[in-house]
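User: hey, got a sec? need Rhodanese-related sulfurtransferase folded
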Amino acid sequence: MRKILILFVIAASVFSVNAQEKDAIVLLTPTDFKSQTENKDIQLIDVRTPEEFQEIYIEEAINIDFYSEDFEVEFNKLDKDQPVYLYCRSGYRSNQSALKLVEMGFTEIYDLEGGILNYNKEK
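Assistant: Yep! Here you go:
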């Protein structure tokens, strides 16, 4: 009986964390991402490498490289209570970044579906 209770507590914890992550992270279509980020003073973050960022980026974006040792240091400089808009090349790194940000205490995270490749298709 005790083993069943322990398994139930572990399962409940996992589902609770997943629910919190899902509540904090919103996946936006390129159209919605554009409308929410245009002409606003927001925290817009490109998590690609500096080389990728130099090739093409969304205006007003700040580059914080997902692979950088300073990833958490740079994100800790941001306001955790303000919305954060993330994008990368195709969506994987921004999703992984969003999960890290939830762990760091960010409460409102918007992730560009399909990354900048998808964003630029709609131009």
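Quick note: The first helix runs from residue 2 to 24. Let me know if you need anything else on Rhodanese-related sulfurtransferase.
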